[in-house]
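2024-03-11 09:14:02 DEBUG pipeline.ingest accepted 1 chain
2024-03-11 09:14:02 DEBUG pipeline.ingest length=188
2024-03-11 09:14:03 DEBUG pipeline.predict start
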Amino acid sequence: MSEIQIKQFRQADHDIEQVYLDRWSPRSFQEKEVPEEVLMRIFEAARWAPSANNFQPSRFIIARNKEDREQFHTFINEGNRLWCEKAPVLAVLISNKENSVHTFDAGTAWGYLSLQATKEGLITHAMGGFQREKAREVLNIPDNYDVQIVIAIGYQGEKEALPENFQTREQPSNRRPLKESIFEAKFK
């Protein structure tokens, strides 16, 4: 989607870098492999996300071939699986629970990953709609890690390639005005 098209849906209240507006969560993926060097750059960005006490609790389990992706499909809820099956890369973000702010750090890593992906011409879509305990079992995730999200990664496809019920939702969402998110001195 071009910058002009993005502006139809998203306008910042203050001047910010365009990458923040360009990043959104499409569901239509091309069945096109992501080159290794491009994929590693997005995970490298996630690695450099801020981390409390430099604990670095985030880990990613990725699926890049058909067999591994099909294994991931076993724990992704049907509503998400219907559109994410074409994504060439799936990743599960987990975080080590030994740090009290591991979820905050994992979310930051996801944010860095998604912004770098946008800069690389990729799209990402994070999903909370999956069976966490089944993912833990299928992927052999130890108990000291929380299973956070599943991320679909790849190149954007045409919205017409999606099932009809997803096509109307295939556009960037806006955000509430900034003044509704900031409070002076106390919550109002």
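2024-03-11 09:14:41 DEBUG pipeline.report The first strand starts at residue 58 and ends at 63.
2024-03-11 09:14:41 DEBUG pipeline.predict end
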